[in-house]
Amino acid sequence: MDEREIQRMRFLIDKFREHMSMTGYAERSVADYPAHLKFFLAFLAADHVATLGEITTDVVYRYQMHLYRQKWKERPLSLATQSGRLVVLKAFFRYLFKRGEVLADPTARTQLPKCPRHLPRSVMTIKDVRKILQTPDADRPLGLRDKAILELLYSTGIRNSELRSLAVYDVDIQNQELRVRGGKGGKDRVVPTGEIAARCVDAYVKTSRSRLLAQGDDPAARSLLFVSCGGKRITMSNLVDLVRKYARRAKLTKPVTPHAFRHTCATHMLQRRAGLRHVQELLGHRSLSTTQIYTHVEAGDLKREHKRTHPREQPL
Questions:
Q1: How large a percentage of the chain has pLDDT more than 90?
Q2: Per residue in 272-287, pLDDT tens?
Q3: Catalytic: 48?
């Protein structure tokens, strides 16, 4: 592509991003989708595709093969990464086709790779959770904030982005509820916090939050429930680092992230016979099949049930 055609493509990508914002795509998708399309632009240059009109089904197939063969740090791209980049490309060309920028959608027949669904590997035991929840020093403003964050992650199973986006008015301490606004898929939901998490959040708001806010002057952080030690908005990596810090202090050997609390919350509730539909509502899953991945049982539970019910394990 020459410079003029590249500029045209970048203009269309900017328009696509604007369209996504206008039609209610999640904030993270609006930020990530154009970045994914840059990989496709680089491929077009290497594949000597001169214009937008020359992008055919065959070009898209070659791009899919390119993703399959591509390596990152000497390892092939995961099927999930390949699928993600193709999903973005399909959305982009659907937009171009509807806008009349292309005569046909070259991605219409593109088949996405089937991604294997793995059981969550980062589920903590109840003992692990107790250790990490007891680690923050709640006598210090920052420790009290961290205690509230960890308790809320475990009690509600909310996502990293959902926790960081919580406003002060989203939490109802008296009724022990919080409102998650604009979750995945742009949907709002109300979830219970539980008594302990509600008490921790209440203590943080009453004694620590204002002191942390006073450390900075960030207008965007004033309405947020949780703020950084400098009184600013907490970033995604900030929250990941916070959780990992307390996991190390608790001497947990397995990898622990904010999402691990989500996995753990769902697994522990289902192990105690919570209804699958209730857990689906708590986590904000669109499909019940997504929630069903948490219905696995620990090996010890399976062995006990096998011994209790299998005919060969019963006395004659």
A1: 53
A2: 888 888 888 888 887 7
A3: no
* Dihedral angle, C-alpha 205, 211, 216, 222, nearest 10 °: 20
Our answer to whether residue 259 is catalytic in this structure is: yes
Residues in the chain: 316
Contact in structure between 232 and 218 (CB atoms under 8 Å) = yes
Give the span between the Cα atoms of 141 and 155, in whole angstroms.
21
Q: Is 306 a catalytic residue?
A: no
CATH of domain 3-98: 1.10.150
Instruction: For residue 288, give both structure tokens.
Output: 């019940």
Q: CB-based contacts of 25: which residues, under 8 Å, 6+ apart?
A: 33, 186
**Set 147, 159, 263, 268: catalytic member:** 159
Cβ-contact 137, 143 below 8 angstroms: yes
Residue with tokens 């410079």: 3
Cα separation, 228 vs 103, whole angstroms: 50
Q: Is 262 a catalytic residue?
A: yes
Q: What is the per-residue pLDDT for 304?
A: 72
Query: Which part of the chain has CATH 1.10.150?
Result: 3-98
The fourth-level CATH superfamily of domain 126-299 is: Intergrase catalytic core (1.10.443.10)
Q: What is the pLDDT of residue 183?
A: 61
pLDDT in tens, 51-83: 898 999 999 999 999 999 998 888 899 998 999
Cα 111 from Cα 97, distance rounded (Å): 18
* Residue 186 CB neighbours (<10 A): 13
Q: Could you confirm whether 254 is annotated as catalytic?
A: no
Catalytic residue chosen out of the listed positions 94, 179, 259, 296: 259
In the chain, CATH 1.10.443.10 sits at 126-299
Q: Which of 145, 262, 263, 268 is catalytic?
A: 262
- 126-164 pLDDT, tens per residue? 999 999 999 999 999 999 999 999 999 999 999 998 999
Tokens 């916070």 sit on residue:
242
Given the residues 8, 15, 19, 184, select the one marked as catalytic. Answer: 184
Does the active-site annotation cover 184? yes
